[in-house]
């Protein structure tokens, strides 16, 4: 029995990055031997065990063979005869196909270290094209390591393009796809994830609504970058720079989908794109089975982001409707995330990345003013039921009028 550290832990150590998760592979062992040493089995499809003390995962060396469509369409074979090199060749990228023993002696049969130095994301073998999930994984690694100068090798991008055209991407489950998408959006340069998907024609398969934004012009007075797709990537980049949570990043990616529906004869104007885009945002949410908090914020940002930009001009009644739509009284955090998404949208424009966004503080102040209305005095006056609701609304409107007057003097 020989035990090796494999994959990301080896890659990140060689890159000088902190190592968090460690994967172990065990060569020359049987399931019975692992159980006898106190390891606990957890793998349903192939033999994976938890270490009796550390709880880390140890997998028996295995080979795999394509047996069906999609990410799960593989048959695995694990036995003591499977070599370390046979286990490593089934991995996606050369930089993830290295192993080291407890003395940090490196096993690198597919030249991962060379590709690390060349800053290349290259597939290990032609079997790469058997797993459609790898298209998303490579794009995610490109986003993670873009700051270090990594790019996708041309021959790997070509294999990704073949996968995109094969129909295999449609076989991915929403859960697996969303896991990769959500992880990629939380990388330091999530816009690179979208760029790579577009470069290999996967974006038009996975998110045609986002893909259709590229080449759609916007008024240069408001959008010096002009192209709606370029703007969307810039907004996403700003969200990463400002360390926004996943909910905000997802909303940033989808906020302008309605512009992809504008007829060419109306370009570069996009009248009512906020409302036109709602059905598209909902369709993408449904396709990936997106968590509810991300779904809700994306829809609200899509509908109301232009309200955010015009916040200082809004009538108190419109401002009240906006606050009601976000339920700022019970869900203040969601409104704060809306404000963040609006600010990222404003900053995601060429040459305007550093400009101030006074709308943010104005909207926060409006929410505070509306929340400051006390309900108890209205109850004491005998209001109840629907009448109480109307009375609260009147008082909040009064508070917003006073707030607007105080800020405009």
Describe this structure in a few short sentences.
This protein has 20 helices and eleven strands.
Account of the 3D structure:
- It is a single chain.
- With 409 residues, this protein is an alpha+beta fold.
- Among the domains are: 110 residues, Beta Polymerase, domain 2 (2-Layer Sandwich), CATH 3.30.460; 129 residues, no CATH class; 37 residues.
- It has 20 helices and eleven strands.
- Helix 8 packs antiparallel against helix 11, helix 12 crosses helix 17 and helix 17 packs antiparallel against helix 18.
- It is elongated and about 80 Å long.
- 41% of the residues are buried.
- The model has no long low-confidence stretch (mean pLDDT 94).
Q: Any chance you could write out the topology, listing elements then pairs?
A:
Layout: E1 2-6, H1 8-15, E2 23-27, H2 31-36, E3 40-41, E4 48-50, E5 57-60, E6 62-66, E7 74-78, H3 84-89, E8 99-100, E9 106-107, H4 112-118, E10 120-121, H5 133-145, E11 151-152, H6 154-166, H7 174-185, H8 190-199, H9 203-206, H10 208-211, H11 228-241, H12 246-254, H13 273-276, H14 278-287, H15 292-309, H16 316-326, H17 332-347, H18 359-371, H19 376-380, H20 385-408
Parallel strand pairs: 2-5, 10-11
Antiparallel strand pairs: 1-2, 1-8, 3-4, 4-5, 6-7, 8-9
Helix pairs in contact: 5-7, 5-8, 8-11, 11-12, 11-17, 12-15, 12-17, 14-15, 15-17, 16-20, 17-18, 18-20
């Amino acid at each position: 029995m020989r035990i090796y550290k494999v994959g990301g832990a080896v890659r990140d150590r060689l890159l000088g990055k902190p190592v968090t998760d460690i994967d172990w592979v065990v060569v020359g062992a049987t399931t019975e031997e692992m159980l006898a040493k106190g390891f606990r089995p957890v793998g349903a499809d192939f033999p994976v065990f938890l270490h009796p003390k550390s709880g880390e995962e140890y997998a028996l060396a295995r080979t795999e063979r394509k047996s069906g469509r999609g990410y799960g369409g593989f048959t695995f074979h694990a036995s003591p005869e499977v070599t370390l090199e046979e286990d490593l060749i089934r991995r996606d990228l050369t930089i993830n196909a290295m192993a080291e023993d407890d003395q940090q002696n490196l096993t690198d049969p597919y030249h991962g270290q060379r590709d690390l130095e060349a800053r290349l994301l290259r597939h290990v073998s032609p079997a790469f094209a058997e797993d459609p999930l790898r298209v998303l994984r490579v794009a995610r690694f490109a986003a993670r390591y873009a700051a270090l100068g990594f790019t996708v090798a041309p021959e790997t991008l070509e294999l990704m393009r073949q996968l995109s055209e094969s129909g295999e991407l449609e076989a991915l489950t929403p859960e697996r796809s969303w896991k990769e998408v959500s992880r990629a959006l939380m990388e330091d340069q999530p816009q690179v994830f979208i760029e790579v998907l577009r470069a290999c024609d996967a974006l038009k398969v996975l998110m045609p609504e986002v893909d259709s934004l590229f080449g759609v012009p916007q008024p240069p007075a408001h959008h010096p970058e002009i192209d709606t797709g370029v703007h969307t990537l810039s907004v996403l980049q700003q969200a990463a720079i400002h360390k926004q949570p996943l909910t905000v990043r997802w909303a940033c990616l989808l906020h302008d989908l309605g512009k992809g529906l504008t007829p060419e004869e109306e370009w570069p104007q996009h009248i009512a794109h906020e409302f036109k885009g709602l059905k598209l945002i909902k369709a993408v949410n449904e396709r990936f089975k997106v968590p509810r908090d991300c779904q809700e914020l994306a829809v609200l940002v899509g509908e109301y982001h232009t309200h955010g930009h015009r916040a200082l001009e809004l009538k108190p009644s419109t401002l009240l409707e906006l606050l009601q739509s976000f339920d700022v009284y019970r869900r203040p955090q969601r409104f704060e995330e809306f404000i963040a998404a609006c600010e990222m949208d404003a900053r995601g424009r060429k040459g305007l990345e550093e400009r101030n966004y006074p709308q943010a503080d104005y909207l926060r102040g409006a929410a505070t003013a509306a929340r400051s209305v006390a309900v108890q005095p209205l109850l004491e006056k005998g209001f109840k039921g629907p009448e109480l609701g109307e009375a609260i609304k009147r008082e909040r409107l009064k508070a917003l009028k006073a707030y607007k007057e105080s800020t405009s003097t």
